[in-house]
Design the sequence.
């Protein structure tokens, strides 16, 4: 063996780290499910800036399979929740991606007034109790917080606002294109630039199907309904959203209505073929593949951030104005206080938080509350006439 010749394993490792030959096996670590969730987060407008990464190849195949079958692009919600019609008291499991994310991210986007109401309540209820030892502070707790919001009259429901998550895709695309020009400028190798440009164009095209928007906001508009979002008994928060004649019908939206646009099947087939063709082209690249790896990893990072980042309801086309938060140390107290201010709302939550039934005095209270709410509703109708 020559003194200048490295042993086989070392030579193989050195060659791989100098010129990664199987770069696709690294870039394909990101699964298609992450791409699908990232698209669900950002889609619905004219432009869906989900960054280019080679996880797109996996997604394109899975999207084709889904389109051929039930023809559904939006994934199922990844966060549990129920939606309650305050007037009819009918509740259903949420099947809407955006409502699931709104429930999941409530602690992120809730108004400062909610936290202030909880702090004021806890400070007011903190008492000093005597024990065998020194006096100790007894810490009260918030049993239930009902946060009341109303649809914004000044914004169009179903039209999403752009936030930093949306703009991150544009920034990532510019960065990727910049990286792809380095081997072209230094060594005249334009293959990385061509692959990156084609990948970004295919990414944007994959998120521009009209069915994304149709599925995302598959509900009636200009709703007067009041809906309550919660995870049910055991969760500390209940989100009341008053439609006010300008909001989305959240009860309808939660049903996950099926949308079937026939030409979606054709376009997903075309996109799958183009992604596979790009994969074949990339597999033949042997020079300057570290730049392609950097581009793919950058895209992976953006996809993961978009997939998991908490967002405000406005980013999902649900524009809200905060009204107030109702807080108590007993769930029944909260429901009664809510019913006094917002007829039918407190009663609609009784079955959710008290599935085992009520005491006799509680039953009588809610019967009377229901009568008062109906009487007030009848008076309002006669007044309109």
Sequence:
């Amino acid at each position: 063996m020559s003194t200048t010749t490295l042993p086989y394993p070392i030579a193989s490792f050195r060659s791989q780290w100098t010129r990664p030959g199987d770069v696709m096996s690294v870039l394909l670590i990101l699964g298609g499910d992450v791409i699908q969730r990232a698209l669900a987060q950002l889609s619905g407008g004219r432009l869906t800036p989900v960054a280019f990464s080679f996880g797109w190849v996996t997604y394109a195949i899975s999207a084709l399979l889904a389109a051929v079958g039930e023809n559904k692009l939006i994934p199922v919600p990844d966060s549990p929740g129920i939606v309650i019609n305050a007037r009819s008291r009918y509740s259903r499991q949420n099947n809407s991606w955006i409502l699931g994310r709104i429930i999941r991210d409530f602690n992120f986007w809730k108004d400062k007034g909610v936290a202030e109401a909880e702090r004021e309540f806890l400070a007011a209820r903190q008492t000093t109790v005597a024990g065998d030892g020194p006096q100790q502070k007894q810490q009260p707790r918030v049993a239930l917080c009902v946060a009341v919001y109303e649809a914004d009259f000044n914004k169009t429901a179903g039209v999403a606002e752009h936030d930093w998550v949306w703009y991150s895709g544009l920034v990532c695309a510019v960065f990727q294109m910049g990286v792809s020009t380095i081997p072209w400028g230094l060594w005249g190798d334009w293959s990385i630039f061509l692959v990156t440009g084609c990948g970004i164009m295919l990414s944007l095209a994959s998120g521009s199907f009209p069915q994304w928007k149709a599925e995302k906001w598959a509900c009636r508009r200009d709703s007067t309904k009041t809906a309550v979002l919660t995870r049910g008994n055991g969760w500390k928060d209940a989100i009341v959203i008053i439609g006010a004649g300008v909001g989305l019908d959240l009860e309808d939206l939660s049903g996950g209505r099926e949308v079937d646009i026939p030409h979606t099947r054709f376009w997903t087939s075309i996109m799958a073929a183009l992604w596979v063709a790009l994969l074949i082209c990339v597999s033949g690249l042997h020079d300057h593949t570290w730049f392609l790896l950097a581009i793919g990893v950058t895209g992976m990072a953006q996809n993961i951030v978009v997939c998991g980042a908490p967002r405000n309801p406005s980013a999902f086309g649900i524009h809200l104005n905060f009204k107030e938060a109702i807080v108590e140390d007993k769930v029944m107290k909260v429901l009664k206080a809510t019913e006094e201010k917002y007829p039918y709302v407190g009663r609609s939550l009784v079955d959710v938080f008290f599935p085992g039934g009520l005491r006799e005095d509680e039953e009588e209270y809610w019967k009377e509350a229901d009568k008062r709410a109906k009487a007030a509703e009848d008076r309002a109708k006669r007044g309109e006439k």
User: Anything to note?
Assistant: The radius of gyration is 27 Å. The chain is about 55% helix and 10% strand. The longest helix spans residues 360-384.
